[in-house]
Description:
Elements: H1 8-12, H2 26-39, H3 51-62, H4 69-85, H5 93-100, H6 107-117, H7 125-130, H8 138-143, H9 146-155, H10 158-165, H11 170-180, H12 188-204, H13 214-223, H14 227-240, H15 242-251, H16 258-261, H17 267-272, H18 276-285, H19 291-299, H20 303-316, H21 321-340
Helix pairs in contact: 2-3, 9-11, 13-15, 14-15, 18-20, 18-21
Domain Flagellar motor switch protein FliG N-terminal: 24-115
Domain Flagellar motor switch protein FliG C-terminal: 236-346
Protein name: Flagellar motor switch protein FliG
Amino acid sequence: MLPDLPDIAELGNTALPAATPRALSRKQKAAIIVRLLLSEGVELKLADLPDAMQTELAHQMSTMRFVDRVTLKSVIDEFVEEIEAVGLSFPGGLEGALSVLDGTISPATVARIRKAKGFNFSGDPWETIAGLDPNSLLPVLEEESTEVAAVLLSKLKVSTAAALLGQIPGPRARKLAYAISLTGGVAPEVVDRIGRAVVERLDAQPSRAFADGPVERVGAILNFAPGATRDDVLTGLDEEDAAFAEEVRKAIFTFANIPERIDARDIPKITRDVDQAVLITALAGATGPLQKAAEFILENISKRMADQIREEMANVGKVKDKDAEEAMNTIVSAIRELEAAGEILLLSGDEE
Length: 352
């Protein structure tokens, strides 16, 4: 005989047992949170995690299939509770701490800390390299193997790579240009190792009291010095150290250098970044040897705009030397800013 069965009505009044969340490890819970955030379109910077942790996360996600709603809710609730319990967080590792302190402690102190603790870079090395002064990369391009230098050039902005290549002697530059054509088959992990090696090499260099070399510092000062002062200083430098004086002349860029060192096609970019009243003052005050630079600018903008500026120059009449020099320095500053941003390139001055 069949056992006595409960009445149908009694079954309807009986509560079903509540579903319980699955027991999961912390690694499994982390994988669930990452999967959930990615599915919601959240961009996670997982590349900043140590390689071992990234590998473990990928392995953990590969072993999981389905998670029921009850378990998912339990994991989310636990995650939210932990986040809300955090009052303050600190970056992991030495690089994270130095990143937070960037700008508040001196470069010399940073160098001493890294030297004492040992350098252990984490994150994307190419992001760090992209933010460096391009000139600091020249020793790497000149001294490292052709393959390493070619990868470095390939990872830089095109304008930055072009400027650096222009500073390398011809035979070496030609070798690097050819080597770039062979970098297509380089494995991503090799590119990453090269980036880390470059960062470590640059970090190992002794810190300097000045960010720029003496040629750049003297050139920057003379850029905005009155013309008479600039000529007098250069004459004195010729007597003291002719080679140094010649390097300084190359580093100097003034209004008079525009025809030799600016590509004619870049003139419209420059004039767009300069207030028209300033441009008119500079051009009207460009007399004598400076008139060549003024004509170069007028010849390489639209005819309508050039005619309008010439008319305004005629109305302005004679411009005070001080006002003209200030206006010309403003134009030079705009050119320097465009060059720093990679928008234009300064020519060497030895070519048309």
